[in-house]
């Protein structure tokens, strides 16, 4: 069982929407999926119709009074299970802080689930903070999936979570956790801003960024109010198709086969015309465009010169973005005033 933390300390970027709908799409593709709701807001539990009474969350497990397996609930969807959350989980921030081993406690709680071998993937829906629950999720995960909203402040949030990932690795708490991917969410094809943000994230993080882009889609925002995943609420909506595509990409990115066989990676032209991904053509596409696509020939292209704000310069995955060179920096797309609606 591979544990993936879906995390970003920034609120409202699409963590829960991603956790719920990626989980549903993975299950649809034959992957045995367990979604663990670590957010006391319990939004993921609600979307899966798994709201629980007090005592149903991982809280009692974290304080040593129960086992995680006892908290697993079936959902309406085949191959999808859930460990729900409850407000009580907020108390674990305080209870865990008292323990010396608080960072690895969640890892200890989840370990027996790995041994059970009943699930292929476990997704952790993290709360929006840098608190103990979120840090513990990174300390217990094999991979980190970072949803970021296609807007300017999304960039700053990304820098912080990447920095936290590096600290967790460097501190030896969980040296093996990797960044599984960065998923761009709430893409609005009508604005330049969305495209600029995707461009910047792709230029710095290259192949870590999912080719699939989640569009802003009303079905995705309406589905939770009916306590449904988007696969159930509007299975042919752009949002449902995008999360299916994200699930297929997730599976392709795994070193070991998972779920039912999925089609091969779509070609660039397919991607740039795909109605679900809504990836604009040109510099945004994954095409091996000159200069703008270092992933096309990573061995020969020098690290990108980053025009990003200093907030970006904390920690970085390989290859690290270079510090801006004032003599060669191209015009900063975010430095100049811009009109996002142009
Ligand atoms: N692609 C999308 N299109 C339209 N609305 C979206 C999309 N993704 C998320 N939303 C809506 O945006 C809001 C925030 O999404 P979500 O709850 O998934 O974010 P979050 O990061 O989990 O938030 P929090 O930090 O509070 O846990 C919700 O109302 C959700 O329905
Ligand atoms: Mg959430």
Fold and architecture overview:
An 8-stranded mixed beta sheet has the order 3-4-2-5-1-6-7-8, sandwiched between helices. The N and C termini lie far apart (45 Å). The chain is an alpha/beta fold and 342 residues long. Helices cover 34% and strands 13% of the residues. The protein has 12 helices and 8 strands. Magnesium ion binds next to helix 1.
Short account of what is shown:
The protein has 342 residues and is an alpha/beta fold. It has 12 helices and 8 strands. Residues 265-342 have low confidence and may be disordered.
Short key terms for the protein model shown above:
single chain, 342 residues, alpha/beta, Rossmann fold, eight-stranded mixed beta sheet, disordered C terminus, binds adenosine-5'-triphosphate, binds magnesium ion
> Based on CA inertia axes, which overall geometry fits?
globular
CATH architecture: 3-Layer(aba) Sandwich
Q: Give the tally of β-strands.
A: 8
How many structural domains are formed by the residues? 1
H and E string: EHEHHEEHHEHEHEHEHHHH
Q: Main sheet?
A: 8 strands, mixed
Estimate the helix proportion, in percent. Answer: 25-40%
Low-confidence stretches: 265-342
Q: Round the Cα radius of gyration to an integer and report it.
A: 20 Å
CATH fold label: Rossmann fold
Specify the number of helices: 12
The helix/strand class is alpha/beta
The H-level CATH homologous superfamily, spelled out, is P-loop containing nucleotide triphosphate hydrolases
> Taking strands numbered 1, 2, ... along the chain, how are they ordered across the largest sheet?
3-4-2-5-1-6-7-8
First-last Cα distance: 45 Å
Catalogue the ligands. adenosine-5'-triphosphate, magnesium ion
- Work out the strand percent: 5-15%
């Amino acid at each position: 069982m591979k544990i993936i933390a879906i995390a970003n300390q920034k609120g409202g970027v699409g963590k829960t929407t991603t956790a719920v709908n990626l989980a549903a799409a993975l299950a649809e593709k034959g992957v045995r999926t367990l979604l663990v709701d670590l957010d006391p807001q319990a939004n993921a539990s609600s979307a899966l119709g798994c709201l629980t009474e007090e005592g149903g969350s991982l809280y009692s497990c974290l304080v040593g009074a129960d086992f995680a397996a006892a908290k697993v609930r079936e959902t309406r969807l085949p191959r999808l299970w859930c460990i729900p959350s409850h407000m009580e989980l907020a108390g674990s921030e305080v209870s865990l802080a008292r323990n010396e081993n608080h960072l690895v406690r969640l890892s200890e709680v989840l370990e027996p689930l790995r041994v059970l071998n009943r699930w292929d993937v476990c997704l952790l829906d993290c709360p929006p903070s840098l608190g103990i629950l979120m840090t513990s999720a990174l300390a217990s995960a094999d991979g980190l999936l970072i949803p970021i909203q296609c807007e300017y402040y999304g960039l700053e949030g990304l820098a912080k979570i990447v920095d936290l990932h590096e600290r967790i690795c460097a501190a030896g708490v969980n040296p093996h956790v990797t960044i599984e991917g960065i998923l761009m969410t709430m893409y609005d094809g009508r604005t330049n801003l969305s495209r600029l943000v995707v461009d910047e994230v792709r230029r710095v993080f290259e192949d870590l960024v999912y080719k699939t882009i989640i569009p802003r889609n009303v079905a995705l925002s309406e589905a939770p109010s009916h306590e449904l995943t988007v696969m159930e609420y509007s299975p042919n909506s752009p949002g449902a198709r995008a999360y299916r595509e994200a699930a297929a990409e997730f599976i392709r990115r795994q070193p070991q086969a998972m779920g039912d066989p999925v089609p091969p990676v779509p070609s660039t032209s397919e991607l740039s015309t795909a109605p679900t991904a809504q990836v604009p053509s040109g510099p945004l596409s994954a095409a091996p465009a000159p200069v703008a696509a270092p992933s096309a020939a990573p061995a020969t292209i020098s690290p990108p010169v980053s025009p990003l704000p200093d907030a970006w310069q904390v920690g970085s995955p390989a290859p690290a973005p270079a510090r801006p060179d004032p003599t060669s920096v191209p015009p900063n797309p975010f430095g100049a005033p811009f009109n996002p609606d142009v």
